[in-house]
Write a structure and sequence with these properties.
- The chain is mostly beta strands.
- The protein has no helices and 17 strands.
- The mean pLDDT is about 95.
Protein backbone atom coordinates (compact mmCIF):
# COMPACT_ATOMS: atom_id res chain seq x y z
CA UNK A 1 0.00 0.00 0.00
CA UNK A 2 1.53 3.29 -1.10
CA UNK A 3 1.34 6.15 1.38
CA UNK A 4 0.14 9.31 -0.31
CA UNK A 5 1.70 12.66 0.49
CA UNK A 6 -0.30 15.73 1.35
CA UNK A 7 -1.86 17.44 -1.65
CA UNK A 8 -4.14 16.60 -4.56
CA UNK A 9 -3.78 13.21 -6.25
CA UNK A 10 -5.51 12.36 -9.52
CA UNK A 11 -6.30 8.76 -10.52
CA UNK A 12 -7.56 7.34 -13.82
CA UNK A 13 -9.40 4.00 -14.11
CA UNK A 14 -10.46 1.76 -16.98
CA UNK A 15 -12.79 -1.20 -16.57
CA UNK A 16 -11.70 -4.28 -18.51
CA UNK A 17 -14.03 -7.24 -19.28
CA UNK A 18 -13.12 -10.92 -19.50
CA UNK A 19 -12.32 -10.59 -23.23
CA UNK A 20 -9.80 -7.81 -22.56
CA UNK A 21 -11.92 -4.98 -23.89
CA UNK A 22 -11.48 -1.72 -21.94
CA UNK A 23 -14.17 0.82 -21.32
CA UNK A 24 -13.77 4.61 -21.24
CA UNK A 25 -11.38 6.25 -18.82
CA UNK A 26 -12.86 7.55 -15.60
CA UNK A 27 -10.87 9.97 -13.46
CA UNK A 28 -11.19 11.06 -9.87
CA UNK A 29 -9.20 13.19 -7.51
CA UNK A 30 -8.25 12.56 -3.88
CA UNK A 31 -7.28 15.40 -1.60
CA UNK A 32 -4.89 14.45 1.23
CA UNK A 33 -4.24 16.81 4.15
CA UNK A 34 -2.73 15.52 7.39
CA UNK A 35 -0.66 18.58 8.32
CA UNK A 36 -1.96 21.33 10.63
CA UNK A 37 -1.41 25.02 9.86
CA UNK A 38 1.92 26.60 10.76
CA UNK A 39 2.29 29.65 13.00
CA UNK A 40 5.16 32.02 12.18
CA UNK A 41 6.09 35.67 12.47
CA UNK A 42 4.63 36.15 15.93
CA UNK A 43 4.84 39.61 17.44
CA UNK A 44 5.72 40.73 20.04
CA UNK A 45 8.69 38.40 20.34
CA UNK A 46 9.02 36.08 23.29
CA UNK A 47 10.57 37.96 26.21
CA UNK A 48 9.88 41.38 24.71
CA UNK A 49 9.22 44.30 27.06
CA UNK A 50 6.13 46.34 26.13
CA UNK A 51 5.28 49.78 27.46
CA UNK A 52 1.88 50.45 25.85
CA UNK A 53 -1.31 48.78 27.11
CA UNK A 54 -2.76 48.96 23.59
CA UNK A 55 0.03 46.73 22.21
CA UNK A 56 -1.14 44.34 19.47
CA UNK A 57 -0.43 40.67 18.89
CA UNK A 58 0.18 39.53 15.30
CA UNK A 59 1.06 36.22 13.66
CA UNK A 60 1.12 34.63 10.22
CA UNK A 61 -0.95 31.45 9.80
CA UNK A 62 -0.30 29.32 6.72
CA UNK A 63 -1.96 26.17 5.43
CA UNK A 64 -1.26 25.18 1.81
CA UNK A 65 -3.80 22.36 1.48
CA UNK A 66 -7.27 22.81 2.95
CA UNK A 67 -6.69 26.29 4.33
CA UNK A 68 -6.94 27.85 7.77
CA UNK A 69 -10.25 27.50 9.57
CA UNK A 70 -10.78 31.05 10.81
CA UNK A 71 -13.45 29.88 13.25
CA UNK A 72 -10.90 27.64 15.00
CA UNK A 73 -8.47 30.43 15.88
CA UNK A 74 -8.11 30.89 19.64
CA UNK A 75 -5.92 33.61 21.12
CA UNK A 76 -5.61 33.83 24.90
CA UNK A 77 -3.73 36.47 26.86
CA UNK A 78 -3.39 35.56 30.53
CA UNK A 79 -6.18 33.03 30.06
CA UNK A 80 -8.67 35.53 28.62
CA UNK A 81 -9.88 35.28 25.04
CA UNK A 82 -8.68 38.12 22.82
CA UNK A 83 -10.88 38.78 19.75
CA UNK A 84 -8.71 38.59 16.65
CA UNK A 85 -9.12 39.50 13.00
CA UNK A 86 -7.76 37.15 10.34
CA UNK A 87 -7.06 37.97 6.69
CA UNK A 88 -7.38 34.78 4.64
CA UNK A 89 -5.62 36.38 1.67
CA UNK A 90 -2.47 37.35 3.57
CA UNK A 91 -2.67 34.85 6.43
CA UNK A 92 -2.10 37.63 8.97
CA UNK A 93 -3.81 37.51 12.35
CA UNK A 94 -4.07 40.66 14.46
CA UNK A 95 -5.50 41.35 17.91
CA UNK A 96 -5.45 44.13 20.51
CA UNK A 97 -5.92 42.34 23.86
CA UNK A 98 -7.49 44.15 26.79
CA UNK A 99 -6.14 41.72 29.39
CA UNK A 100 -2.51 42.87 29.60
CA UNK A 101 -1.05 42.87 33.12
CA UNK A 102 1.95 44.65 34.61
CA UNK A 103 4.82 42.18 34.58
CA UNK A 104 4.80 38.81 32.82
CA UNK A 105 2.01 38.02 30.35
CA UNK A 106 1.26 34.58 28.87
CA UNK A 107 0.11 34.41 25.24
CA UNK A 108 -1.40 31.24 23.77
CA UNK A 109 -2.37 30.83 20.10
CA UNK A 110 -4.11 27.77 18.63
CA UNK A 111 -5.44 27.12 15.11
CA UNK A 112 -6.76 24.27 12.97
CA UNK A 113 -7.28 23.79 9.24
CA UNK A 114 -10.57 23.20 7.44
CA UNK A 115 -10.22 19.41 7.80
CA UNK A 116 -9.69 19.64 11.54
CA UNK A 117 -5.94 19.14 11.78
CA UNK A 118 -5.05 20.95 15.01
CA UNK A 119 -1.78 22.75 15.55
CA UNK A 120 -0.25 22.35 19.01
CA UNK A 121 -0.94 25.67 20.77
CA UNK A 122 1.98 28.07 20.60
CA UNK A 123 2.75 29.60 24.00
CA UNK A 124 5.13 32.47 24.76
CA UNK A 125 5.54 35.26 27.30
CA UNK A 126 6.15 39.01 27.17
CA UNK A 127 6.59 41.68 29.84
CA UNK A 128 4.34 44.71 30.18
CA UNK A 129 5.83 47.75 31.90
CA UNK A 130 3.92 51.03 31.73
CA UNK A 131 5.01 52.41 35.12
CA UNK A 132 8.27 54.42 35.23
CA UNK A 133 10.87 53.91 37.99
CA UNK A 134 10.61 55.68 41.32
CA UNK A 135 13.67 57.18 42.92
CA UNK A 136 15.46 59.97 44.75
CA UNK A 137 18.73 61.94 44.69
CA UNK A 138 21.12 63.44 47.22
CA UNK A 139 23.95 65.92 46.60
CA UNK A 140 27.21 65.39 48.48
CA UNK A 141 25.55 62.87 50.80
CA UNK A 142 22.90 65.40 51.80
CA UNK A 143 25.18 68.35 52.57
CA UNK A 144 23.43 71.72 52.42
CA UNK A 145 26.47 73.73 51.34
CA UNK A 146 29.33 73.21 48.89
CA UNK A 147 32.29 75.34 47.89
CA UNK A 148 32.80 73.53 44.58
CA UNK A 149 30.77 73.53 41.39
CA UNK A 150 31.42 69.76 41.21
CA UNK A 151 29.24 67.56 43.38
CA UNK A 152 28.64 63.86 43.92
CA UNK A 153 25.13 62.64 43.18
CA UNK A 154 23.73 59.79 45.24
CA UNK A 155 21.18 58.05 43.01
CA UNK A 156 18.56 55.64 44.27
CA UNK A 157 15.80 54.14 42.13
CA UNK A 158 13.79 50.96 41.66
CA UNK A 159 11.49 49.47 39.07
CA UNK A 160 9.64 46.29 39.98
CA UNK A 161 9.02 45.16 36.40
CA UNK A 162 11.91 45.74 34.02
CA UNK A 163 14.55 47.35 36.21
CA UNK A 164 16.31 50.72 35.98
CA UNK A 165 18.35 51.12 32.80
CA UNK A 166 19.61 54.69 32.76
CA UNK A 167 19.35 58.15 34.29
CA UNK A 168 18.89 61.59 32.73
CA UNK A 169 20.50 64.50 34.58
CA UNK A 170 20.20 68.24 34.09
CA UNK A 171 20.53 71.54 35.93
CA UNK A 172 17.44 72.74 34.08
CA UNK A 173 13.96 71.26 34.61
CA UNK A 174 13.07 71.28 30.91
CA UNK A 175 16.20 70.93 28.78
CA UNK A 176 19.82 69.77 28.52
CA UNK A 177 19.29 66.36 30.09
CA UNK A 178 22.31 64.07 29.78
CA UNK A 179 21.47 60.36 29.65
CA UNK A 180 23.91 57.98 31.31
CA UNK A 181 23.85 54.37 32.55
CA UNK A 182 22.30 54.13 36.00
CA UNK A 183 24.85 53.83 38.83
CA UNK A 184 24.30 54.45 42.56
CA UNK A 185 26.89 57.24 42.64
CA UNK A 186 27.71 59.80 39.96
CA UNK A 187 30.82 61.82 40.73
CA UNK A 188 31.92 65.24 39.44
CA UNK A 189 28.54 66.50 38.28
CA UNK A 190 29.04 70.19 37.44
CA UNK A 191 26.57 72.69 38.85
CA UNK A 192 25.93 76.08 37.30
CA UNK A 193 28.76 78.48 38.22
CA UNK A 194 26.46 80.72 40.22
CA UNK A 195 26.12 81.47 43.90
CA UNK A 196 22.95 80.55 45.65
CA UNK A 197 20.53 77.66 45.69
CA UNK A 198 21.16 75.05 43.01
CA UNK A 199 18.86 72.23 41.89
CA UNK A 200 19.74 69.06 39.99
CA UNK A 201 16.94 67.34 38.09
CA UNK A 202 16.80 63.59 37.61
CA UNK A 203 14.75 61.30 35.38
CA UNK A 204 15.08 57.54 35.87
CA UNK A 205 14.44 55.33 32.83
Amino acid sequence: LKMLSDGRHRFSVKAVNALGSAGPVSSFEVWIDTTPPSITGTSPDSGAVLKVLSSTVTATLTESASGVNAASIRLLVNGSAAPASFNQATGVLSASPSSWLQGSNRIELAVADVLGNNQTPLVWSVIMDTIPPAGSITLNAGASVTTSVYVTLGLSASDLTSGVKSVRISNDPLTHFVEEPFVPMRTLWRLNALRGLQTVYIKYV
